[in-house]
Amino acid sequence: MRFCSLGSGSSGNATVVEARDGPRTHRVVIDCGFSLREFASRLARAGLQPEDLDAIFVTHEHGDHVGCALALSRRHGIPLWTSRGTWRAIGEPGLDGEIRFARDGETIDVGSLRLLPYTVPHDAAEPLQLRCTDGARTLGVLTDAGSITPHLLDHLRGCQALLLECNHDAQMLARSRYPASVRARIGGPHGHLCNETAGQILGAVVHGGLRHVVAAHLSEQNNTPELARQALADACGMRPEDIVVADPVLGVDWLDVG
Ligand SMILES: [Zn+2]
Ligand SMILES: [Zn+2]
Question: What is the pLDDT of residue 92?
Fold first, then answer.
């Protein structure tokens, strides 16, 4: 199994997960927070075309996650999985029968890839994040969550790779020029994870088999790659240079989970 990020941050997010099973390869894209044209060009950078995708999973209705998901599904006939709450929030699009409803705790099989959606605290209708496995290896994905829940931790345990939101540095956010109401939303229990909280999550689930840690969804105003790297490295005993930071434009090149 391997995965890559096509870009991550407040202006757009997309992660591709791929599993091989003999001659067959299956791929899911988690969120499509770019225009169709931009998405296709980023996908090409990862060596893929839209036809190579077997499923789309949309975590929640915010624009940096939905992006071109509906257009991509319609144009290429790719099944789109999302929660009923997210589907309602984006206007209950028909999608020519390609809509599939995801629920917390109900696994989704995409060929040899098994996805397990789980609920997170975020200011959206019914946000779901994902645990992905090919049966041997597991990737835990968590962005857009405001606080730690036991449920969330349960879904990130035992993973060989983790993609974790490190949205902001709490002090940078406090000093930012954002209005107080926006600062309160971002830093609140249904907002976004700060570096310190991401570190606490990592510290709670770290184990000897964890190979890749990716810091994602960094705010360009209220965080730096160095601060995110340091917070995660401190939490799991890795060196800062071993923590990968997902770039808003370049994302992260393919990482092999094994
Ligand atoms: Zn987001
Ligand atoms: Zn969001």
Answer: 92
Residues with CB under 5 A from ligand 2 (ion): 62, 144
Tell me what pLDDT residue 97 has: 78
pLDDT in the model for residue 32: 98
Nearest to 222 by CA among 10, 7, 66, 8: 10
CA distance 53 to 40: 11
The reported pLDDT for the residue numbered 251 is 98
What is the predicted pLDDT for the residue at 258?
83
CA dist., res. 255 & res. 258, Å (int): 9
Task: Check residue 94 and give its pLDDT.
Answer: 85
The closest ligand to the CA of 123 turns out to be 2
Q: Is the dihedral of CA 69, 216, 195, 81 positive or negative?
A: positive
Residues with CB under 5 A from ligand 1 (ion): 64, 144
In this prediction, the residues of the chain whose per-residue pLDDT falls under 50 are none
- Minimum-distance ligand to the CA of 143? 1
Q: Who contacts 182 (Cβ-Cβ below 8 Å, separation ≥6)?
A: none
146 CA distance to ligand 1 middle (Å): 11
For residue 54, what pLDDT is reported?
Answer: 98
Chain centroid to Cα 194, Å, comes to 15
Where do we find the tokens 């990862």?
A: 46
